[in-house]
Amino acid sequence: MTQKTAPQRRRFLKKASAGAVGATAMAAPMVSVAQTTSLRFQSTWPSKDIFHEYAQDFATKVNNMAGGRLKIEVLPAGSVVPAFQLLEAVNKGTLDGGHGVVAYHYGKNSALALWGSGPSFGMDPNMLLAWHNYGGGKELLAEIYKSLNMDVVSFLYGPMPTQPFGWFKKPIGKLEDIKGTKFRTVGLAVDMYTDMGAAVNPLPGGEIVPALDRGLIDGAEFNNASSDRLLGFPDVVKNCMLQSFHQSGEQFEILFNKGKLEALPAELKAIVDYGVQAASADMSWKAAHRNSLDYAELKKAGVKFYKTPDAILRAQLAAWDKIIAKKGGENALFQKVIDSQKAFAARAGQWWNDYTVDFKMAYNHYFSAKKA
Fold this sequence. Notes:
The chain is α/β, with parallel strands linked by helices. The chain is built from 14 helices and eleven strands. The protein has a domain of about 160 residues: Bacterial extracellular solute-binding protein, family 7 (D-Maltodextrin-Binding Protein, domain 2, 3-Layer(aba) Sandwich).
């Protein structure tokens, strides 16, 4: 009895195993021969700008993780549409996606500029991203896009370092020096500089330096040492004012056409999501490395850097108070975003300020020329 049962059991297990292998062999080709989905993106940045490089970095990460099943190609600004028309192009499906900043859509709803413009109630860019992802910002942004009939999905990432107050032909020593200055900025920073007396022209990034060179504007801000150097700021002006509240918490936006994103299999959508997070961390590390190198090169090239006077920084805060009061009274969604940000900042900001040590103390301990 025992001798008969054992061979039967072995034959049964052998058949079952063969069946399982056969089933696996039948299922495997469905994965290996899956077609590649190609998506065409455009950034809002010139090809030589580090921002376009960041856009390509995101695409590379997704493409590599997708193992050939998804391929994102990123074109530079103007390849398909002008930089400020990216949102409409992605919504219509002219482009499958894009890379830019939310502030570029400011003209469609003033609330969109709140993802970056202004002092953000004392939140730095990483803290603002924390609010966006865990404090209700993501849902509010989706609500705003829905109100505009924009069929897009937005991913925010990449906390940017504090942006300079601006580049000028002459240093800005007092608030009166800004009055009458023809100046370039974007988003709600337009309102802030206007309140301080500047005549503002919100030019796209690629048009700034030519406008400075031709005297169409007297000063401008863009973003960081690497971008400013590559765009050619030091070729036309030699004075840069550092530190500002006009855009002290900005981040990048990766846009997808909603239909194109939702058509992807669940695992590819997960790769996109995690690719955004990976690119966010990598971008912040690369920025620290590259911006510091380019800052040193700008100094070598004869650029003079000045700290923006505290009186001007306080004037920015005062201007911001007037802006949010006015815009909040005109736009219910604007006020909704402001209330959400303020509630998160009050809680998270207290924790951050109470817990975070003054790193400048340690830096000065090791590098200050005045150290004993």
